[in-house]
Design brief:
553 residues, alpha+beta, 8-stranded antiparallel beta sheet, 13 helices
Length: 553
């Protein structure tokens, strides 16, 4: 059996056993938070009950019966009234009485296509009644036609519409719909090749792209159409491999759910593709990682799995921001034990869930955070520190290899009770000194230097420490150094690293502007970041202005 198939089976078995152990609610469902979770868990339970390569810890016949019951209840929540605007849709959040929940536009977008896949794969094993309910449900989806929309901005919604056009056009022999899907696919390919992927670090949206088009690839038969789907999926996985480090999503996150920060937890598709980290016990987004797989291009895959040579990733992309097209630039520096980078420009993002830069470690076990970053809280921030997302626009940055510089032009006056900058420090060994934080986390040392006059408090959180900083004209530098590199320079423990780096501080200035200069301890490169009184900024590396000439789609 292929390694990836073994990993897929492991996901199927683990999710199925979670479903088997999960007590049913009075509604006959496991979850009322999101209707889709019931479909996903029941799909895995059904599959595990049949697959002889999987050795489930439950009775196969009883598991199949339970899965069919839940699948039937999900199907019966569909709006089957053709006279209503939400015909063919499901509710999303079910509430205490699922049968009274209102239909919502989102569930069918991905779930509808996955239902076609599941029905085709398992129809012969379904009871006659469940098979008939699936047939009827798919008919309602097709006639409801949620996917009958033009391609405009080429986002994750439209990616799922395009895949659904192909899937439902093929299934119902609707040649006009199928041709619409083919043209939408070609237009999507053209736009990605021309402008890059605007949803560059969106979780879970990126996985919705890959699942939707992998599902279409599984169901299509025309060689030319399959070739174009292969081409699109190769492009998506090439992008993913550029920003991959042992389960971590390196660099800027344009959005993410709470489980995506400060720990990468939406990792099942990465686990199947790469298999270079342990399958976590907690799986917040199961979706169809155990059923759908497209192998990344081999050269890209090898690079993602072998980071022995550091790599700089410079990507350009075009994004619509408030109706205006803007070119953005994403930078990442990826090594064997850590990565650093982010987005140079600040843009408005969905639900203000952007994390503009971070240092990433490989995915860690036991719920430990694998991300380090600092930001000024903005709209949506939770002051409890339990959800360290939602930054403001008040930050200027400079990225260069293993170093990040950041300035926070905050409104005056700042200080206790006023403006603050918060930082996430992954759980590890930390030394807290005046205006500096030194840490050792797994195979990496971190030196965080804060501008003069900055005071901070440390709050212990689950898997990380939250540094809450106050001070005038706050700025900082972060340098990451691997344990091996430090040992090569005669440093064998955190205390020695802290002594070394405490004599290697940045230069912070606030007169005539707002700036920080730093010479990298490892690289010896001279970095300078400045915000002028006019609000404009300047960035130089070894005296040369930072430009984006080497950035490409």
């Amino acid at each position: 059996m292929n390694d990836y198939k073994e990993r897929m089976n492991r996901i199927v078995r683990n999710v199925a056993e979670q479903a088997w152990r999960q007590p049913l609610l009075p509604s006959g469902l496991w979850f009322h938070g999101d209707v889709r979770d019931n479909f996903y868990y029941a799909s895995y339970l059904f599959a595990a009950s049949l697959d002889l390569e999987i050795d489930p810890q439950f009775n196969r016949q009883e598991g199949k019966r339970l899965a069919e019951e839940v699948l039937g209840r999900v199907l019966r929540l569909q709006n089957k009234d053709a006279k209503t605007p939400m015909y063919g849709h499901w509710p999303l959040n079910l509430g205490p009485k699922p049968e009274e929940a209102s239909p919502h536009a989102l569930p069918v977008e991905l779930m509808g296509s996955l239902m076609v896949f599941f029905h085709r794969k398992f129809e012969s094993e379904m009871s006659e009644g469940l098979a008939a309910e699936f047939e009827a449900g798919l008919e309602h989806i097709y006639h409801g036609g949620f996917f009958r929309k033009p391609l405009t901005v080429c986002n994750h919604h439209e990616a799922k519409y395009t895949a659904a056009k192909l899937i439902f056009g093929h299934r119902f022999n609707d040649k006009e719909l199928l041709e619409d899907g083919k043209q939408s696919l070609r237009d999507t390919l053209s736009l990605l090749q021309r402008e890059g992927m605007a949803e560059y670090g969106c979780l879970p949206w990126f996985w919705h792209w890959t699942q939707a088009f992998t599902c279409a690839l599984e169901l299509m038969e025309e060689p030319e159409l399959k070739r174009e789907l292969h081409q699109l999926l190769d492009g998506l996985w090439s992008l993913r491999t550029s920003y991959y480090l042992k389960g971590a999503w390196v660099g800027a996150h344009s959005r993410g759910w709470p489980h995506d920060a400060p720990r990468d937890a939406n990792v099942l598709h990465d686990y199947v593709q790469f298999g270079d980290f342990s399958l976590p016990e907690e799986m917040p987004r199961t979706e169809y990682a155990g059923f759908l797989f497209h192998k990344a291009p081999e050269a890209n895959r090898r690079l993602a799995l072998d980071r022995s040579e550091p790599t700089e990733v410079r990507k350009a992309l075009t994004k619509s921001v408030d109706g205006e097209m803007r070119q953005l630039h994403s930078y990442a520096y990826v090594t064997e034990h850590f990565a650093a980078g982010g987005l140079w420009e600040r843009v408005r993002e969905f639900d203000n869930e952007q994390l503009r830069w971070m240092f990433s470690l490989p995915v860690r076990t036991g719920g430990k955070a694998n991300q380090l970053y600092f930001f000024h809280p903005g709209e949506g921030y939770d002051p409890s520190g339990n959800d360290p997302r939602h930054q403001s626009e008040r930050m200027e940055v400079l990225y260069h290899k293993n170093v990040v510089l950041a300035l926070y032009p905050l409104p005056e006056p700042a200080g206790a009770g006023g403006e603050e900058v918060v930082g996430v420090l992954p759980e590890g060994e930390w030394l807290y000194e005046a205006e500096a934080l030194y840490g050792k986390v797994d195979e990496v040392y971190f030196a965080v230097h804060l501008s003069p006059g900055t005071a901070y408090d440390i709050k212990e959180q689950s898997g990380y420490h939250l540094a809450v900083c106050h001070g005038p004209r706050m700025s900082l530098t972060v340098e990451a150094v691997t344990v091996r590199e430090a040992e090569n320079r005669g440093i064998g423990q955190l205390a020695a690293f802290a002594r070394q780096m405490s004599g290697h501080r940045p230069e912070f200035k606030t007169d005539g502007g707002f700036e920080v200069a730093y010479t990298g301890w490892m690289t010896e490169d001279r970095l300078h970041l400045k915000v002028m009184a006019s609000g404009s900024s300047a960035r130089t590396i070894n005296g040369a202005e930072c430009t984006f000439e080497s950035y490409s789609v």
